Amino acid sequence: MTPDQITEALRAALPDAMIDVRSDDNTHFEATVIDAGFAGMRPLARHQKVYKVLGSAVGREIHALALRTLTPQEHAAGGN
């Protein structure tokens, strides 16, 4: 899987999100997903939402995925 393929899958499920996916080897990925829909959600629930979109690719084509999930307000405030 490529970063572009992951971005496309996430964009289809989270059309208003800002998404940045990076990888040096197309098996280990880093993704930042900024979406207003994350408001009021705990970090674990945010990550589960992203994992649900990617489905069975996680653990197969996506060997590892480091996630940053933020609301637009958290991102603007320099959120981590």
Task: Describe the overall structure.
The chain has helices at residues 3-13, 43-54, 72-76; strands spanning 18-23, 28-34, 64-70. The protein has 80 residues and is an alpha+beta fold. The protein has a single domain, classed as BolA-like (GMP Synthetase, Chain A, domain 3, 2-Layer Sandwich), CATH 3.30.300.90. It has a 3-stranded mixed β-sheet with strand order 1-2-3. The mean pLDDT is 95.
Structure summarized in a few sentences:
Helix content is 35%, strand content 25%. With 80 residues, it is α+β, with helices and mostly antiparallel strands.
Give the class from helix and strand content and strand pairing: alpha+beta
Largest sheet: 3 strands, mixed
Total strand segments: 3
Helix content: 25-40%
Write the topology of this structure.
Elements: H1 3-13, E1 18-23, E2 28-34, H2 43-54, E3 64-70, H3 72-76
Parallel strand pairs: 2-3
Antiparallel strand pairs: 1-2
Summarize this structure as a short list of keywords or feature phrases.
single chain, 3 strands, GMP Synthetase, Chain A, domain 3, 3-stranded mixed beta sheet, 80 residues, alpha+beta
